[in-house]
Amino acid sequence: MDILQSLIGIFTDYGYLAVFTVLLICGFGVPIPEDVSLVAGGVISGLGYANVHTMFAVGMAGVLIGDSAMFLLGRYCGENLLEHRYFKRMMTPERYQAVQDKFERYGNRVLFVARFLPGLRAPIYLTAGMSRRISYLRFLLLDGFAALISVPIWVYLGYYGASNHQWLMTWLGRGQTAILVLVGIIALIVAVWYVRNRKQKN
User: Domain-by-domain residue ranges, the chain?
Assistant: First the structure.
């Protein structure tokens, strides 16, 4: 995967700052795969160029600040932002309608799911800010909880696969599915807990 090799080279040369900057750019909808960026950060940790736990913290910071920037831009600039050429290209009428449909179907829960939807993540966060239906603190909690699932998986996958690229490439392809399965299991556990708790109260 050429982009992974390119990111490994850049991150090896410039370290944590490069990882943070790339993840921040990813948050703005620039087509650099966030998962691959996190894996590349894990790889350079596995090769001894960085500490993997620090890399996890840097990854969380880059992801959350990038996501927050999109949400706050939407909140304070509103739909006027869509007149800008870059955002108009990112938020096409079709994509905007798709995001609106997801909000109608899932409500604010879509902000948690958005972290696992490459391509729709930035438009969803931007729309959430525009809607003013959710506070920034609630957005940060939902996004942060989702990031606590996805970020360590990608970073530690890169760390443990640093010396075995064939194994790493295999699991990089399977990783998104594995995360979605994990999210499904967590959602099931929460649902069962909620139902049992409600029955006990009744």
Answer: 2-201
